[in-house]
């Protein structure tokens, strides 16, 4: 299903996202300077921008047939894509802190609390969250759509979404989780924000409720796939390729898909999820192709 | 200006807020249970609810002349009041962590990281933020007003508001700050969320732009007053009355209004700010009385 121009499309969106984020983040010269510097360091650290790409792909897929993204919708997608990247960035900063995963390395660079200090890292994360919601509030689309976007992001980032998944993850170190329990945890920790990404794209583009259902099914599949790939990479990859400490899950006695299903079983699950994702966006027709291609990318990524 | 029924009005709003917050917070029986328990512990710990009272007072002051708060506006005020209390609660939880103020006692009880653990305290704070924005998104008023409320809360909670003030506070321990620098810091750290409280009340009630200017001037005065009172209490009160460690600022060599202006100078400043606050809400007429009374309460409080 993938097209040869997908890498170009993806790379254009990623580069555009870097410019947009740079413009949205307060300058390091504005007081409090150290906090703003830490926020920029947290966000501009060379992330894969998969979530931003999902926002754009879902937005481009859901505009009414025969139309393309309007200028206002394009700006709104920038805001929405930046918002999910800011929430993702804050979660990594807090996750790396000593009281959580205590990681020194992220994307090949010192983590925020190592480069700055713990208090600054915590506050940088704390300040990235409201900036995400501020960007949504400033989207130039109908206020009713903005409200839907705020609600979706808040729900996916909260105690029944990402933050809750993080809490379950912390609490389950050293425990034997069933596949179902593992799936619930990752569905919250990782899946919820991937779901937020595609939902926000759909909301901005005025997606029908049928289209939104397709997006949700797609998000369920890629959310799970994302985590399975993470677990596989933790085993088969090395620290320099990953840009973070490899083998950490096994060392920390964390339950993973690989420990549960084995490498082969994990890879079979990935192919099934990839097909699920493709099927979910099929009703969107040709505009849904980018979403299918992103599913392939997520399953095939090596870092 | 104050009326004899103010304590009743205030106490009714506080009790109502407790019920409302109890209803909005996820039950401790819902997974992740420990996180939800920590969120409840953070929020339901007997706060003064000054911010909630400001939301209600501003809302009641800004409905058009001759009208009273509608049922939908009343529900929206509940959401807005809960939202500012959640943001305030999260900020205290993170502020008490070892990497920040490292406090063991808050409102006479063990702080969240002492009662639970550091990771749970951080995640509880992280999860309270999106819940606040979710509650705003669910307000039953015009979507355009909801969007204004989200933007105001996000701005006041962010790096140019509360989180930024916290960062400056951390960075200024042991430094000599001028009165102007101290004022900027506290204006962000404490004042911004008091401003958010009155603004949100005004927005829900459909306040005119003139009324909103009055609210902002009022918020500036009480925001500053709030901090001056805090500094005075840290010197003249004791730990059991305060419910937190007294004398902590002086021990930590933190710059305060008392260290800068002395006790007498601080008390003179308080009276001037009280008069400023009264003058700012005078144009609102009799419905603005509760706001004036809240200013008196803030200046006169002993914990």
Automatic annotation (TrEMBL), chains A, B:
One of its GO terms (cellular component) is cytoplasm. GO terms for biological process: terpenoid biosynthetic process. InterPro entries: Isoprenoid_synthase_dom_sf (IPR008949), Polyprenyl_synt (IPR000092), Polyprenyl_synt_CS (IPR033749), Prenyl_diphosphate_synthase (IPR053378). It holds the Pfam family polyprenyl_synt. Keywords: Isoprene biosynthesis, Magnesium, Metal-binding, Transferase. GO terms for molecular function: metal ion binding; prenyltransferase activity. Its cofactor is Mg(2+). Belongs to the FPP/GGPP synthase family. This is Farnesyl-diphosphate synthase. It comes from Pusillimonas noertemannii.
